[in-house]
Structures are given as C-alpha cells and as structure tokens.
Amino acid sequence: MKFKSQDKQNQLIEKITAQHLVVGIDIAQQMHVARAVNFRGLLSFWISGKGEILRISEHS
After folding, report:
1. Which of 7, 12, 18, 20 could form a disulfide with 39 if both were Cys (CB 3.0 to 4.6 A apart)?
2. Are residues 48 and 40 in contact, defined by beta-carbon separation less than 8 angstroms?
3. How far, in Å, CA of 50 to CA of 17, rounded?
4. Could you give the 3-state DSSP secondary structure of residue 15?
5. Model confidence over 3-37: pLDDT tens digits?
6. Longest distance between any two alpha carbons in the chain, whole Å
7. pTM (two decimals)
8. Which residues pair with 53 in a beta bridge?
9. What span, in angstroms and rounded, lies between the C-alpha atoms of 48 and 50?
C-alpha cells in the first residue's frame, strides 16, 4: 500500500508527545526566525543577520 506524503506527515505528527520539542527555523538575509513548540505553548525568537537575539516572545 502506498502512502501519500500527507499521510506520512500526519503519522509523524501523531507520534509527538509531551516529551518532544518541535523547532522550525526560517533563515533569511536580514533576520532569522526560530519557533519552538511543546505542550506548554509556543516560543518565538527573532535573530538578526549578525546573530543577535532581537526579541523573544512566549505564546500560551
């Protein structure tokens, strides 16, 4: 049986537990953004192109 890529992605998402931390990173020329999500909520980081942390936001 072949799985569609969306089915595979859904299977991976279903395996996430409270012990996991999911991180997404967007690397751009001027500013980078990283977001970390766990069972407590969302944490966002804005980082300059020089590597300086500009802002950290916590979302519940």
Report:
1. 18
2. no
3. 34
4. coil
5. 677 888 888 888 888 898 899 999 888 889 999 98
6. 48
7. 0.60
8. 47
9. 5
